[in-house]
Amino acid sequence: MSDASRDWLFDDGSLTARLQGRGKFSLRVVTQRLAPAAADEAALFGLGRRQRAWIREVVLSVDGEPLVFAHSVLPMHPRGPLTRWLARLGTRSLGSMLFRHPGFSRTPLLCQAIDRRHELHRRAVDALGVAPDTLLWARRSNFGFATQGLLVTEIFSPALWAALAAEAVTKTPQIPATRADDA
């Protein structure tokens, strides 16, 4: 993985703002519903297998290219302002709320590659339009506000890594080749 890719994975600023800086940003809501959380998410919140949480999944695109699949989980209890805010987001990004309000805290980012064994892989592959066997990089952190916690998982498309690699090539200074007899 390149330094640029690592920089994107471990940047704890607003991913939405960073994507907006790359071109025309758009967000498509894939789903927002009450549903059981994935097993690893339920374990983080201490939820039972059948307990439901608010699940919101969106695709973040730049210039029409899907670059990030975001999956957020908000337990139904305790209730609080996050529940109301999430319900009213519509097609606005979660980052527009999280990074503009001073009351939020955030845990450190955890990053890992995921494949078809991970519960979110298939949904991310479908949303990003990549091959089913694609290894995807994901990051996750928990945002806290008052007594509520909101788990956010962001899964990156290989298209972003390809764009970063192409930019690195164009920014690298070219050194003219020398012939042996020029020395």
Instruction: Identify low-pLDDT runs.
Output: none
CATH superfamily: Chorismate lyase-like
As a percent range, the share of strand residues is 25-35%
Number of helices: 7
Layout of helices and strands:
Layout: H1 3-10, H2 15-20, E1 25-36, H3 39-45, E2 52-62, E3 65-75, H4 81-88, H5 94-98, E4 105-106, E5 110-114, H6 121-128, E6 136-145, E7 148-156, H7 158-171
Antiparallel strand pairs: 1-2, 2-3, 3-7, 4-6, 5-6, 6-7
Task: Give an overview in words.
The protein has 183 residues and is of the alpha+beta class. The protein has one domain: 3-Layer(aba) Sandwich (Chorismate lyase). It has helices at residues 3-10, 15-20, 39-45, 81-88, 94-98, 121-128, 158-171; strands spanning 25-36, 52-62, 65-75, 105-106, 110-114, 136-145, 148-156. Strands 1, 2, 3, 4, 5, 6 and 7 form a seven-stranded antiparallel β-sheet that branches. The chain is globular. The model has no long low-confidence stretch (mean pLDDT 90).
